[in-house]
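Quality-control log, excerpt.
Job 1 of 2 completed; input and output follow.
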Amino acid sequence: MKKLVISLAGGILLSGFAVTSSVSAEADYKIQKGDTVSEIAETYGTTTEDIKELNNLSSSIIVTGDKLKIDNRRVLEVQKGDTLSELARDLDVDVNDIKDWNKLDSDTIVIGQDLKLDLSIDSLKNFDEFVAERNGQAPVQKQESNKEKKC
């Protein structure tokens, strides 16, 4: 009987751990007046289809003030000269978060290693530009929206 109770208690603890250790793969974006799903997708480095699927949208019609989930997971390949502290600073995340996301026990990273990142909505907005600059490419020019064209 004791073994059964201990076994059940262990199962409950493991189940609770699995539930509490889940990490969100989404960042929330509050829809602004004039936003379109395609502009939001371009701004945050995703696709219209991904946003629609993640938010269970059957069309691209969105409502000002509502929130959209944006997939915030990205992967970054470590390059020569990279350090966790510099990457964390440049991406506006905490070093310990990068270590947690990648199950790292130390600050040691190696060239070619893929680092998983769960970025904030603000960090997502600049991620593609950050990657382009570190790869020696010109930043991708985003199309001007109607909001930006008005003077």
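Job 2 of 2 completed; input and output follow.
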Amino acid sequence: MSSEKTTVTKGPKFIESLSRASRSMALSLPIILSLLFLFGWMQVFLPRKVLLYLFRGQAFSDTLIGALLGSIFTGNAANSYIIGGELLQRGVSLFAVAAFMTAWVTVGISQLPAEVAFLGRRFAVARNSISLLLAVMVAVAAVWTWRMF
């Protein structure tokens, strides 16, 4: 066996990769800062008492409310993870959080007019309805799986 040392050279590909990573981080910085701002507002305008009033710890109603709220407040998956973690820390049930996160990404009530314009009313309504139903089913399956292990 050879005992030669391998050296990492910082050639043009490394510099290009570093540059791309820096640009990507710079582009995501406003999103991260806006999320921090959003959570600050959540602490003030959505106190734990309101969340616990809305989500009463009943599996069926929590799941439906979570799915409905997630479908209204649409966003990307990365944001749903952060919001879901915050909701869990504030005492919201896993049923509600799982339904919220799934609907947040898959259902788009706020985007429905644009979806209807481009894809047709029948398709848009069917897709959103099926996605909402699946969000509820995914939430139940997620909690069931979590409890099993």
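Post-run check on job 2. The two ends are 46 Å apart (CA to CA).
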